[in-house]
C-alpha cells in the first residue's frame, strides 16, 4: 500500500518534468481507492496559458476516466498548496481530501488571507475537504 510520502514523491517527479519544460516545479495527482487515476504537470509558462496549473491538469485528466461525481471521493496530492484558481476547481468538483507539500502564502487556497478551500460560504460546495499539509518541504 502506498503512503503519503510515496504519492508526494511521485508528484515531485512530475514537478521535475514541469521544471525541465521551463515551468515552475509543480506536480499533482488524483488518487481514488489507493490508485493513481491521473497526473498533472505545471504547463502555464511553456504553453503561455495561466490555467495550465498541475492541479487543474490532474483534475481534467481524471474527468477523462471518471464521472465528475466520482471525484467527490478522491484525493488530490500536490507538491504545492493549490492556488486560488485551483482551489475553485477543487471545490467545484468536490474533491474530498487535499495533501500538499509546500505552502504558498500569498495566493494559496488554504494558508493565504483567502482560504477558498476551507470556505463554507458557498452552499452548493458542501463540506470543505480534509486538508493535510504542508507535509514537508519539497525542493523547488
Written account of the structure:
- The chain is α/β, with parallel strands linked by helices and 140 residues long.
- It has one domain (4-132): Cytidine Deaminase, domain 2, CATH 3.40.140.
- It has helices at 4-20, 54-62, 84-93, and strands spanning 27-32, 35-41, 75-80, 97-102, 130-132.
- It has a 5-stranded mixed sheet with strand order 2-1-3-4-5.
- β1 and β2 (35-41) form a beta hairpin.
- The longest helix is centred in the N-terminal third of the chain and has 17 residues, at 4-20.
- The two termini are 27 Å apart.
- The mean pLDDT is 95.
Question: How would you summarize the topology of this molecule?
Answer:
Blueprint: H1 4-20, E1 27-32, E2 35-41, H2 54-62, E3 75-80, H3 84-93, E4 97-102, E5 130-132
Parallel strand pairs: 3-4, 4-5
Antiparallel strand pairs: 1-2, 1-3
Count, helices: 3
Strand order of the largest sheet: 2-1-3-4-5
> Level of helix content?
25-40%
Largest beta-sheet characterization: 5 strands, mixed
Specify Rg, calculated over alpha carbons: 14 Å
The CATH homologous superfamily name equals: Cytidine Deaminase, domain 2
Flag low-confidence runs.
none
Please tell me what the overall shape is: globular
Give me the secondary-structure category. Answer: alpha/beta
Q: Got a strand count?
A: 5
Give the SSE string: HEEHEHEE
What value does the average pLDDT take?
95
CATH architecture: 3-Layer(aba) Sandwich
**Share of residues in strands:** 15-25%
